[in-house]
Specification:
Length: about 400
């Protein structure tokens, strides 16, 4: 199912905050290239249909770039580039396509419960799979310590697969206060490291010994889904007091989300596009490249080119090429929103503007981006109100 522009944009804007938690204090213990939100499975293309990364001023990206005070693309009439479907004011939607299943609803509830999981300190037993252990470790290869192989106070969930094969398994069964050796072999192709003097140390395929001290053990405790828990957690803030009310809430939310996706699918399938204006595609390319540029410089102290290569790409151009379909998709949806606003003379309400302003800081995103957000929400509300669901 395709997602609408705002959803994809929100996801991309939010990734950075997640990534800095995922990668904090962890480099060489992980796999060959260290996991990254950049796809390591490239499409194979090394050249983007939109040119080279060097063609774009991504270092100075601003979310309100190229947007006017109405939330439109500056100087662009969307109807010059897209022909809307004839039934745009009555898009047919199959009810079966937007009705969530019980499994869908349960998945949302399970995810919610996970968010309210608490950590409970464990004493009186050995570490087991699923526990989170706090450890100190110091690794050596051929008796020599290497950069990135030593850490104090690291929290590791056993069974997560975060460390190289065999590392976590050898912690299982140990007790708080134990100091022991973990013997592992770095996978073939693993990046080299250095010793204290800066001399290169080959890790690929090499046996390593880590001296590990187990400082503490904790386990996750997920709350039981009961009427009492729902009432205590959401009774005041959301007016939800029972499990059934919570299920109904998620059923409605999922159906609304599926309806938005179905409407956008119908628009994309029924609309006809001319060549996309470069001002729109370049906006999303600059957003994408700026995200990875910021990630590379702020969290890895490197440049975009080096970051791309470390994640399995030939260079930054190949990484950009791997997302060509996303740039095209986002640009088309951008134009669809504006074209509908143009034809229907849609403007956001004050409530929609207030909601957008509450979600996006004007200092970071700019007033024009906030207005565009409210405008696209207004367009989607119009589409939902005119859709023919059967």
């Amino acid at each position: 199912m395709k997602r609408n522009t705002r959803t994809l944009l929100c996801i991309l804007c939010a990734i950075l905050a997640v990534v800095c938690v995922i990668f904090a204090g962890f480099t060489l213990i992980k796999g060959k290239n260290s996991a990254s939100p950049a796809s390591s499975a490239s499409s194979g293309s090394t050249t983007s249909i939109y040119g080279s990364a060097a063609d774009y001023d991504y270092q100075n990206f601003n979310y309100s770039d190229g947007l006017d005070a109405k939330g439109y693309r500056t100087g662009i009439r969307a109807l010059d580039y897209v022909t809307l479907p004839a039934d745009v004011a009555a898009l047919p939607i199959a009810k079966a396509d937007i009705t969530p299943t019980e499994a869908d609803i349960q998945s949302q509830i399970d995810s919610l419960l996970t968010q309210y999981t608490t950590s409970q300190t464990v004493t009186g037993r050995a570490a087991q799979k699923g526990d989170t252990v706090n450890i100190d470790y110091a690794g050596t290869v051929d008796g020599v310590a290497f950069t990135g192989g030593t850490c104090a106070g690291y929290d590791l969930t056993l069974g997560s697969g975060s460390f190289i094969d065999g590392f976590e398994d050898q912690i299982v069964g140990h007790n708080i206060g134990d100091t022991f050796d973990v013997n592992v072999t770095f996978p073939t192709g693993y990046n080299d490291s250095t010793d204290a003097e800066g001399n290169a140390i080959t890790l690929s395929g090499k046996a390593a010994v880590f001296s590990v001290t187990l400082n503490s053990i904790s386990q996750s405790v997920t709350p039981e889904l009961t009427d009492a828990w729902v009432d205590t957690t959401f009774g005041t803030s959301d007016g939800l007091h029972t499990v059934e009310a919570l299920r109904s809430y998620y059923a409605a939310a999922l159906q609304d989300s599926d309806l938005e996706n179905a409407l956008m699918d119908a628009l994309l399938d029924g609309a006809q596009f001319k060549e996309l204006p470069k001002e729109v595609t370049s906006y999303y390319i600059r957003l994408y490249l700026n995200y990875y540029y910021s990630l590379a410089s702020n969290y890895y102290q490197t440049d975009l080119e080096t970051f791309a290569k470390a994640n399995g790409y030939a260079d930054a151009d190949a990484m950009m090429a791997d997302s060509d379909s996303m740039f095209t998709h986002l640009a088309k949806q951008d134009l669809l929103y504006q074209a509908i606003a143009e034809t229907q003379n849609i403007q956001p309400t004050q409530e929609q503007l207030d909601t957008a302003a509450a979600s996006y800081s004007a200092d970071l995103y700019g007033e024009n981006f906030i207005y565009q957000t409210a405008l696209q929400n207004a367009v989607m509300d119009w589409l939902k109100s005119t859709a023919v669901i059967s």
